[in-house]
Design brief:
Layout (H helix, E strand, L loop, with lengths): L1 E7 L3 H19 L3 E8 L2 E8 L1 H6 L2 H36 L5 H16 E2 L4 E2 L1 H19 L4 E3 H8 L1 H37 L6 E7 L2 E5 L12 H10 L3 H12 L3 E6 L6 H11 L3 E3 L22
Parallel strand pairs: 1-6, 7-9, 9-10
Antiparallel strand pairs: 1-3, 2-3, 4-5, 7-8
Length: 309
């Protein structure tokens, strides 16, 4: 009895290899033999699947057909996620964001994949999200196979997986926003670097002491800088909700020292600011690897070893 024809224009070998493997498992687990043959119709290749009538009669018909459909859905959902998803993302980018050049589109595709699979809590990619998408597609295939004995992968994706496609489109939209923000940030950093390079340094060396309460700036002799460097920024911070990260970056740009030494007992609290400072000042910045100042154990005024860092 003919049960199903699976049609596609690409990924044919992967489909055939995986389907035949699943049929082998079905034979081992349920003693059900699935016969298959290939045919070409137009641009589509079809894998036709059938089970001998005597085997259907020997076993429970409904259970056998249900198991067959599940094995097929398992394979096709996996292949759609692992093989078609990247192409679908590329198509969405080319259709909606055609004005980006080829290299930019590749970056957006990379960001899209990360957004789809990144776990913000764990801080890394998680297979859970990919598994959730596969499960979503698998159920759609099972639902479709209940009333159809032919499935063409490309058409099924286009007309039956609209929620899945919307999820990919949303990821691409977010990736574009992220790409534009990063591009704008890089251009801004480039401008600040130029500004720092062309101005005369007001101090040769600056020590930046960071702790949970904020930051302080010291010169090469460990004398704290007076508020003249920060006064204007402090007023601006109060008026425009500028935070301490912005204040630190602005102060260092104004002073434009030849060398910046960062001391911090809690660098994680200033991660964004330190990344910005590193991008602007590049090889002018160094991070102390753990002196007494960094550990918040002694008063800076009594510390002289820092001068030799």
């Amino acid at each position: 009895m003919h049960l199903l024809s699976i049609g596609a224009t690409e990924n044919l070998e992967q489909i055939k290899e995986r389907i035949l493997f699943e049929f082998k498992l079905l034979k081992e687990e349920e003693d059900v033999t699935v016969k298959s043959n290939e045919k070409k119709r137009g641009e589509f290749y079809f894998l036709n699947c059938s089970i001998l009538d005597e085997e259907l009669l020997r076993n429970s018909f409904s259970n056998t057909v249900s198991m067959f459909r599940y094995h097929v859905a398992n394979v096709l959902s996996d292949i759609i996620i692992s093989k078609w998803e990247k192409k679908l993302i590329d198509q969405i980018i080319k259709e909606h964001y055609y004005y980006f050049n080829e290299e930019e589109q590749k970056i957006i595709a990379k960001y899209s994949n990360r957004i789809l699979n990144f776990d913000d809590v764990e801080g890394k990619n998680s297979y859970l999200y990919e598994t959730n998408r596969k499960t979503q597609v698998l159920h759609k295939i099972l639902e479709y196979l209940e009333t159809n004995n032919q499935i063409i992968i490309e058409g099924f994706i286009k007309f039956r997986l609209k929620d899945y496609i919307s999820e990919l489109e949303d990821a691409v939209d977010r990736a574009v926003d992220e790409f534009l923000m990063e591009k704008e940030y890089k251009e801004f950093i480039k401008l600040l670097k130029y500004f720092v390079e062309i101005q005369e340094p007001k101090k040769d060396v600056i020590h930046v002491i960071l702790n949970s309460k904020g930051f302080k700036l010291y010169d090469i002799n460990m004398n704290q800088l007076n508020d003249d460097y920060l006064e204007d920024f402090t007023i601006e911070m109060a008026e425009n909700s500028m935070n301490y990260d912005d204040l630190l970056v602005s102060a260092l740009i104004t002073i434009a020292p030849n060398k910046i030494i960062i001391h911090s007992s809690c660098p994680q609290n200033y991660k964004e600011a330190l990344n910005t400072v590193k991008n602007i000042f590049d090889d002018r910045i160094m991070f102390c690897d753990g002196c007494e100042i960094c550990k918040d154990k002694i008063d800076v005024k009594n510390h002289v070893d820092t001068q030799r860092l």
